[in-house]
Structure formats: structure tokens, C-alpha cells
Amino acid sequence: MGRLHEYQVIGRRLPSEQEPTPKLFRMRIFAPNEIVAKSRYWYFLSKLHKAKRANGEIVSVNEIFESDALKVKNFGIWLRYDSRSGTHNMYKEYRETTRAAAVETCYQDMAARHRARFSSVQIIRVATVKASDVRRPYIQQLIQPNLKFPLPHRVQRPATKAARSLLIAQRPSTFY
Question: In whole angstroms, what is the distance from residue 85 CA to residue 41 CA?
Fold first, then answer.
């Protein structure tokens, strides 16, 4: 699938005598490239409105870039997916630096936990969630201010190769 990008796709029905200036429809689509983004746009538009690619046109396709891509944020993702038993709605939370990275992690997570393929997952909404509004405990444990990770197996190395000894009389102590 490759790395996902976020695209803004704007399209409309073709102008006709009954409707000379058709209504524009804008969507934010997550896709690996522009071609897939356009294809997903028509897929979703045909489900939401009476429009299809044969009697419509795409006005513009723009890639959306994250403004602060170096800051870690909490993202909430609302989605629906088709499983073997039916269609399910779901809300998931992720900690990532960009919206596209959070959605990519979501697709990987859905494939791992629910065996849901890319084509069967539909992203409904992606929003940045404040730390106080985080619902999931697996994300809440990561937003504590004094978070520390243990270093369980530290092997002390000699400062130089000359200080290294080939044989040592005792086992190394790796627990501190």
C-alpha cells in the first residue's frame, strides 16, 4: 500500500441545462497517491449523493500537509469497516505526529486485529483530541507528565578497545 498522504479532492456533477452551476463536493481522502484519492472520492460520492464518475468532474486535487509535523498529538479516528459478519462502526485513538501517520497506523491496526483490508475500511472522521479528552486507557498511560521507561538489560562497554579484557572472572551485572 505504501505511505499514505492526505488529499483534498473537490468535484461536482457535469453542468447540464437543468443545473448550469452544480454544487461542489469537498472531501479529505487518505490515499497512497492522487489516482487512488480520486478513485476513493468517486466511491464515497456515489454512496453519499447521486453522482458518479461518468457524469461528473474533479475540479481540484490538493495534498494537505501537517502544520506542526514534529509535535506528537493524540488523534481520534471514527471509522466503519466490513467484517465477515457485517458492517461495524468504531472509534480508535492513536498517538502520532501527523493525521496521515495516524490513519496509516489505523489501517495497520485494523488489518492486524480485525483482518480488515484497506478497501473494507472507511475513515469517517479524524480529529485531534486534547489530553484531557482521551478515552482509551492505552493512550492515557502514555500522556502522563512523568513517564519513564525502564532500561532492564544494560551492558557496560569499555571506554576504549585497550580497556577491554578478553576474559573476566565474573558474570556481567546487567540489572541496575
Answer: 26
- The rounded Cα 163 to chain-centroid distance in angstroms is 48
Read off the C-alpha cell for 41. Answer: 472520492
pTM: 0.82
Q: Residue 112: what are its φ and ψ, rounded to 5°?
A: -75, -50
Q: What is the DSSP letter of 30?
A: E
Q: Which three cell numbers stand for residue 114?
A: 480485525
43 secondary structure, DSSP code: H
Q: Which three cell numbers stand for residue 5?
A: 498522504
Measured at the alpha carbon of residue 87, what is the angle toward residues 53 and 9, in degrees to the nearest 5? 30
18 vs 22: CA distance, rounded Å:
9
Grid cell 492522487 in the structure block, residue:
34
> Cell numbers at residue 90, please?
468504531
Mean pLDDT (whole number) for 67-77: 95
Closest CA to 102 of 132, 135, 133, 71: 71
- The HSE-up count of residue 171 (CA atoms within 13 Å, CB side) is 3
